[in-house]
Hints:
The protein is of the alpha+beta class. It has helices spanning 2-42, 54-64, 176-192, and strands at residues 68-75, 80-94, 97-108, 116-119, 123-128, 138-141, 155-160, 167-173. Strands 1, 2, 3, 4 and 5 form a five-stranded antiparallel beta sheet that branches. Strand 2 (80-94) and strand 3 form a beta hairpin. The relative contact order is 0.14. Residues 1-8 have low confidence and may be disordered.
Amino acid sequence: MRKEGRMIDRKFLAVVFVLLMAVAVSQAQDQQQKAAAGAKAKSGKTTTDKGPTLDETMNWIVNSLSVTTPYYYHLPDIHVILSHRYQYTLTKAGMCSLRVVTQYSVTENPGSTQSSTESSPTTDYNVNLAELDPTSAAVKPVVLPGDSPKSQNPFQLTVSKTNTSTSGFGLVLSDESLANRGKVALVHTIELCGGKKSAF
């Protein structure tokens, strides 16, 4: 009986040992996965199940939306043509932050002997993408005065801050396709950065 009891004890201990080893291995794998996810987040490699990484999307935004947008319109009542020009320079100011530098000028009657140009002060600000509401991103045509053809209308890309009506980001772009692609890229980036929908 003692021998049988010892054999049962040894079998029981062997089973317990195997179970404990399985739990330890599982915990080690979980810790490795969490560590890998943390390393990706710190290096800007954060991803969702679909789509490019945060770093890849930020690079696309910086390279594709740093553009110059010219447009003009005609005011027939006062015989004036006004030519507007936006120049945007976007750079990464952090993993989830963009620096936006905007230069704006307007020229009256370009090409004429009485042409004159006025430039506004350069604006320079940072955008924390985590503070933006991804559902607020919108692309709308800019309605121009006068008799200018609608085909020349530029498009405004805007995103508001979460829980406010304050604009957190805005660009005027001459190409509707680029504006829509920019909207998709911004929404993806904001979501990767943890931006939330406004509560109201």
